[in-house]
Amino acid sequence: MGLFNLFSKEKVLYYPGCLTKGVLKQEFENYKDVFNILKLDFILLSDSESCCGLPVFNAGYKKDARKLAKKNFEFFKENGITKIVTSCPSCYHTFKDVYPELVRDWDIEVEHATVTILNAIKKRGIKYMGSEEDRVVVSYHDPCHLGRYSEIYNEPREIIHLLGGKLIELSFNRENAMCCGAGGGVRANFQEIAKKIAEKRIAGMSEDVIQILSPCGLCHANIKTATDKSREFSTFVLGRLRGMR
């Protein structure tokens, strides 16, 4: 947990999301380490947090989703939270776009971790100083909730460039990106179908690519069924930041 400035009016919560908190525990640690390296103030309430409620909302249980959203809002307020930073694209979309419809007085700022990290990197003047030949060759997968839903395309790519990555785009990218194949409960219920979609997602990926990155834990996990080059975005960021210190 970062050192929180007691004199600041802003109280920032890092909300990892259920998958990161419960399954991708190394990536959970990665994000905390990245925030600490970048000297970002944040707190954690992971042991007390509830799900953001998107699965319930998408399943059609709108009344239950509204109750959960209200419960979460009250919880955030009780803890003085003024801003939420989340590394989960689905949680980001939920807090940013869905909660204002479910909670009348919703007034908490929401930011995706890639935006937070990019702003901090720029503020601290961190940038790759090596040769172009030594850049790490990567591809990047746009998660549905971060891309088409939230239109966050440039920030992750700019981070990759500033930290010494050389991006080779997949055939379908940005607003035309394919789904990884895991969303909508597909991976949970039809693993073989999800894997086949993941295989199609990376079809044609350059052989020069060392890592394919995605800032979505579910996308990373599903793409990993098709290639061992899959990395959650925080793995790349943390490794490069440590190497540049």
Describe the structure.
The protein is an alpha/beta fold. Helices cover 44% and strands 11% of the residues. It has 2 domains: 12-116, Rossmann fold, CATH 3.40.50; 126-244, Rossmann fold (3-Layer(aba) Sandwich). The protein is built from 11 helices and 7 strands. The longest helix has 17 residues, at 62-78. The model is unreliable at 3-7 (pLDDT under 50).
List keywords for this structure.
single chain, 7 strands, globular, four-stranded parallel sheet, 11 helices, disordered N terminus, three-stranded parallel sheet, alpha/beta, Rossmann fold, 2 domains, 245 residues
Spatial order of the strands in the main sheet?
A: 5-4-6-7
Identify the CATH class of the largest domain: Alpha Beta
Mean pLDDT: 94
Largest sheet: 4 strands, parallel
Give the terminus-to-terminus CA distance.
Answer: 20 Å
Q: What amount of the residues lies in strands?
A: 5-15%
**Rg over C-alpha atoms, rounded to the nearest angstrom:** 18 Å
The general outline is: globular
Q: What is the annotated CATH architecture of the largest domain?
A: 3-Layer(aba) Sandwich
Topology:
Layout: E1 12-15, H1 18-22, H2 25-37, H3 54-58, H4 62-78, E2 83-86, H5 89-102, E3 109-112, H6 113-123, E4 136-140, H7 154-162, E5 165-167, H8 186-189, H9 191-201, E6 211-214, H10 217-223, E7 230-232, H11 233-244
Parallel strand pairs: 1-2, 2-3, 4-5, 4-6, 6-7
Helix pairs in contact: 2-11, 6-7
Short description:
With 245 residues, the chain is α/β, with parallel strands linked by helices. The protein has helices at 18-22, 25-37, 54-58, 62-78, 89-102, 113-123, 154-162, 186-189, 191-201, 217-223, 233-244; strands spanning 12-15, 83-86, 109-112, 136-140, 165-167, 211-214, 230-232.
